[in-house]
Predict the 3D structure of the following.
Amino acid sequence: MKKISTRTNQQLKKDVKSFLEIYPGYSYYKKYGEKYSVIKGEIDVCDTMGNYLDSFNIEIYLDNDRYPYFIPIVKERSTKIKRHEDWHIDKDGICCLDIEHELEYKAKKGIEFIDFYQNSIYPFFANTVYKMNFGKYSNGEYRHFFKGVQQFYSEKLLLDNKHLIIGILNAILINALPGRNDRPCICGLDKKFKRCHLKCVEFLKSLSKERLLKDLAGFEEIC
Amino acid sequence: MDVYKDYMKLIKEAVDSDSSSYLSKGLGVPIENIKRSNDQFKALFSRIKQNEIAPSMVNLSESINREINYKQQLGSHPDFNYLKGTEAIEEHYVVSSFIDIKGSTNLFKKFDKETVFLITNTILKAGIHTMLVFGGYIHRLQGDGIFVYFGDKKMNEKEAVKKALSAVSVFTHFVKTDLKEYLESVGIEYIGIRTGVDLGYKEHVIWGNSGIGDISEVTTCSLHTSLASKMQSSAEKNGVVVGAHVKNEISNGDDYFTPVAARKGENERYIYIDNAKKFYYTQYDFLWSKFLKTLDFIALDQYGNPIVKFRDYARPISDTNLRPIAVKNKPYFCKQS
């Protein structure tokens, strides 16, 4: 966990203030000593032509200590979204905005709240409205649980070979990766590592050890 | 804002049919022969009907759910019309708003007089319609200005103030965004509005017949109506200045108002001082854009732009228009820890 600093909390204060200037309909609640600050209000889904489509009552939880190295938790309060895993929401209304790997990567880099609202939270609700009307998500969805992790490795990291994935994860965990200019690549192809699998390995390296171990266990189980 | 698209369409057609457009197309026809025809002019002039708002504004009207009174007459608020031609007076609160369109003379540098007429008249109609939608009573038209009262005997001061501020916020947003953007694209740099709004409480306002015979109107006599006009001249371009009474009627007033003196860097914050009565009255810049975004009938899009919260259920949702936003999301379900 990142070291807690006054600067970090000032960042939260500054980012929330900027957010509320653009979206003044939201209210901000912060109680001294509590882990989370909460932003409450309505998210209005409008399309690119300025047509209003729907609204959801939401709460956004921001970790007072870890922000910006923390992914906000989004809770849908209006219960317009069916509490079912097919709608990517749990029984308490917590919304699953993206695959955990992508969220963890963003958290590691640090988020800027307005950008996260516009490009992660807002699209989730736009996509929900899309599914409510067209019966499916606009861009597909990740399968539930570990199958979704497999899908992520395949689609985003272009890694389909389970044995290769296990090899890469092990190499990251025991710090036995090839050098950038080493040939062959970790996959066995006669190519420099930097020209082959370096990019996806660097993404995986940015994830927590716990995440990598969990993925490793999952892939070993299905092998 | 989409509710003004019919007004904007008319303005654009007026500009497109201006004689300068023919010249710029190099048609080489003598100027006296290239004016739009009378029929063309009439068709544009009558596009927005006398007794109804433009179709695009119906969404706004329906989201506010208020019946519009088109039968209003200038200078005759229906609740006080009984005072016409009488010696009687009545004390009743009033919210006075002065909206002045600035810079319209610049239009003459660019367009012929018919085009200028169509543009200014359409802006005026858009303004009048906006005020009517929010229940305003148009008291007087002064050149390019609109003097409008808010409030009546069925409405309290708080509600009247909210209606007035909502109306001027929506209209100022239109002028500052849609209209400004378009006019700048055709080389008109400065056109905007300045607005002053003030509330006079019952004990400070007299309604009565002013003038003689037919040369008269039922109007208000109040320091605060006079101050509203003065405040309008203190406003920035596309700005709104209000009196302290207005601020006091709005919950969380400090969120939406800042003293004009702070903007001007003046030490003296009062627009009106009466030392004998120990009455010191402050004028405030109204943060209308922020206020607009908090109104019930306004939705905020992905980037915080205000949009009228009206869903036309007869019109199906467009895949093409929603997909570009939705596609950024690819959800995943896992049990939350």
About this structure: The mean pLDDT of chain B is 88. Chain B has eleven helices and 13 strands. The first helix of chain B runs from residue 5 to 16.
